[in-house]
Each structure stands twice: as C-alpha cells, then as structure tokens.
Amino acid sequence: MTGVRPKQLNIDTTFPLKVYTVAELPAAALFSNGAHLFVTDEVGGAIPAFSDGTNWLRVTDRAVVS
Length: 66
Hints:
By secondary structure, this protein is mainly beta. The protein has a domain at 19-58. Helices cover 0% and strands 21% of the residues. A four-stranded mixed beta sheet has the order 1-2-3-4, with no helix packed on it. It is elongated. The model has no long low-confidence stretch (mean pLDDT 89).
C-alpha cells in the first residue's frame, strides 16, 4: 500500500510478567510464541524468558531455561 503510514503505538505503562521458579514453569506449548514470563531461580540468576512454542528461552542468550 503506497503512501500509507503504519500507526505508532505508544505505551506509557509497564506490563508485569508472571513469576515462576524453574520447577513451576508451565509447558511452553500452552503459550503462544513470544509469550513472556520471569524465572526467579534460573542458572545464573533471575531472568525474563519467552516461549518459542516448544521451550522457554532466556531473553539474554536464547538458551533453554534449565
């Protein structure tokens, strides 16, 4: 579509992430790709993670949460 500009989305709020331990993590397949959560006891410390539809991956290096 020529000449059509996408609308800009401005969000001035935070989105709290659900918090889990590694043992409590739900199956990533139950969530859509890109869903985010926070893991409190991941190797190396607490970290945000996202679903790829199969696994929970650490945001920092995309390694599988273990």
